[in-house]
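Key idea: predict the complex, not the pieces.
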Amino acid sequence: MQRLPVTPRADWRAHVERDLGFAFHTIDGSAYWDETACYRLTSAEVDAIEAATGELEQMALALVDRVVQTGEQDLERLHIPRVAWEAIAASWHSQEKNLYGRFDLAYRGEGPPKLLEYNADTPTALFEAAVVQWDWLQATSPERDQFNSIHERLIEAWANFGIGAKRVDFAAVRNHAEDIGTIEYLRDTAIQAKLETARIAIEDIGWDGQSFRDLDDRPIDVLFKLYPWEWLVGEEFGQHLLSGAAQVIEPAWKMVLSNKAALALLWEMAPDHPNLLPAFLEPGHIAGNVVRKPIYSREGANIQVLDSGRVVAETDGGYGAEGFVYQAHVEMPAFDGNYPVIGSWVIASRPSGIGIREDTTPITRDTSRFVPHFFE
Amino acid sequence: MKKSRSVRLVLLGSASAALAACDNGGALPTNAQFYPTVNECIADLDAATCADAKAVADRTQAVEAPRFGQKEQCEQEFGVGNCETRQAAGSSFFMPMMMGYMMGNMMGGGRFSQPVYRGPNSTAVMPSGGRLLNVGRFDTLGAGRAAFRPAAQITPVSRGGFGSTAMNYRAAGG
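Result:
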């Protein structure tokens, strides 16, 4: 694995905006899409990532099964609200399908890739990985390969979802360009799978006493929500979602995996697995540096790196009320002062490609940049 | 090869900019009334007015209703069992079945009459301003009969029951 400086395409901004509809390449004045560099991986490295991702997904699914079987005891350790327990079990027993997830891996090209966390419920950086880096490679060196069949797999997954003639409503928070870009891309792939789709702001979803309604008062039967389950269940209409008034994507059982306490349960289920880092729900089990992460958090917020209990690095944010998980610290690979994290995608539980985000600090935040890759 | 053979966008990008525009159409005048046939109308209004309005709605369906080459295409939009076959100029096609007509007074004077079709999920839809407006529901009464329930009599839709948590944070995705 190498980081190579490359010359950006002269007109890339105009091109990605016009031809790809990529609106959030620059966020708050800073570059997010960054083609001044790229990562070169070897075929063996891609194979290692793909194999690790497949194995991690199988372990994650086994964990959901275990938690659903164990019930109360595990669900409480995961801090999943009691109101959601029945819906989680029901969605798992009825084998509700899932669309996608992103494993964030620490990997330097040697040794096994290590799971930092699993974004099982509301992963983003999807369009960048599936389309923008593919387009970059086609424009700059089309003869090269990339670990990225995300686009094809998404269309295939939608076609196999069993949705039929029902409309899928894609919901995200109003006025968040990156989230809206993500659901618009997912809609694009659903349309290509011959599904009827619409877009709605999560705030605009209506309830008429029996069913969810869009702004034209049409019933919402299938809801794709780029909005965390743990938020939904705590809000006014959450009970209706839990009582099954609509099919939800991702399904309710993803709640088991979308919180970071799952990292500790994974370690408990498969201790010493080469792709896992030791993780516990209580401090004091890990010798050496420890990373403390809130059970519910996003985009690298409220992370502490602890050396024998002393804080050596920290990020701010508004998370942490539900408690923390303690994960062994792994030295992040650094390339010219940049710390890449490999976002490894599963589409319908199949490893389907990667997107690399890097930051100038070892904790990947919402200030990170997306850097394309190829392999040979 | 581990990369997609092709990546085509239909919604995003240049090919699709025109799809973004969409308005909410016109609202239904509050005095509008649904009649399944002229007979129900005559109870409220004189026979000539009722028959004229029915004729206007019939013509609108014949001329403006969406046409589909295949029954399945029509049913995908309007729901299974809600389409009928028609013939014109020697070819046959499918269009939504007319369940009755909606008539009333327009704001600023004049009378309007529009066909009402059965849409997906028991909805009642009416053409308005180039699109189909949801005007109510057809509740099934058995033996193939259906009762129209205007949108105003359906439990009002409440909104804003999702999204409050997001205000405390920067992003919902990650």
